[in-house]
Amino acid sequence: MIKEPRIQLNHLVSSLSAAVDLVSPVLVNHHKQVAYTSFCLASELGIPMEEKSELVLAGLLHDIGAVSLKDRMDYLRFELEIPHQHSRLGYFLLRIFEPLSNVSKLIKYHHVFYEDGKGLEFEGNPVPKGSHILHLADRISVLFKFGISPLSQAQGIVDSIVSQDNRMFMPELTEAFRKVATRESFWLDLGSNNIAEFLQRRVRYRTIELDTEGLLKIGNIFRRIIDFRSPFTATHSSGVAASGKALGKLAHFSWSECRMLKIAGFLHDLGKLAVPTEILEKTGPLTKEEFNVVKAHTFFTYRVLESIEDLNTITSWGAFHHERLDGSGYPFHLGSENLHLGARIMAVADVFTAITEDRPYRKGMTSESALKVLIGMAKSKSLDGDLVELLKENYDEMNSIRNDAQADSINEYREFWSQL
What we know:
The chain is an all-alpha fold. The chain has 22 helices and 4 strands. The longest helix has 24 residues, at 395-418.
């Protein structure tokens, strides 16, 4: 029996934040910088630790609603024309998970201008002070440039922020920033690669330990963030998760292990957050360079999650879904001796889902064609032959489970976007 994982929520949030920042080198550390600056501002204001910890989580996740590279780059402009869509998206993604419900509200309003007090409300709703702190921290991070001495650019950033006092930013927060900005340590920390370690030492997070039930819930949020970026991928992770769980049951995995397979399915493409939607939505053949970008996604899935020790089994099952028994897969070229049965199940579930699901630009394969592909991959020692045989023997049931899960997901996708 494989040990059931128990994970701290803040560790998982940090990993998701790191995955989102993979989309461009320009964005590296942006979420961490916003979390760090929010913490410093809140400390200067004497805000209690529990509220500060929620602010830090909101900082780490504030741009998860920016679903494409173009979105992310647009929202990094200091003056925004249409700033609120990605804020609403982030809110809708997170609000369904109770431990992050307050965080989602902070994110929803994090681009509201203060406007001489008018920004204390937005669309008839009160705007939390934490949202205004996030807004200021976000703009400070946007103005900060790597490759230039942090201390050399400090005064210019202060001047830019102060010039928008009472318009973009709440005066109380501007004044707090002026005090924080007098400390060289603030700027040197802001430009370092150790912000995560700083936050881990200083922030006392509310202890929220996730068992497999909690992991399924937050994994479902991850699945939405990964897949809902594009109609081309809107149902893929739900199909892999359902197929993996069903195949695990046929392979006599325990009830708990089947749930772990479902979580692995939700997380298996986490690294695709580093793949621009412009590549994901390309209907023609990928160039070699584009394919290399796509191939890196499994590496990023593994690297982003590997630091969470109790998640290691689920991480390896999900992240190794493109490894092959003959060692020809990627990114680690693991062979059969290093691939747990869970990883083999996820590999079969991923191929099965990919070739049978409908995409906007093509229909899924028929059962005859799909089985031909799967059996061929088993014969070439790419996929586990016993698992492919199990799938073949139960094909109609497996296909129905996969199809139902993806039909539910496409309805969820349409409802999600209709709310905007």
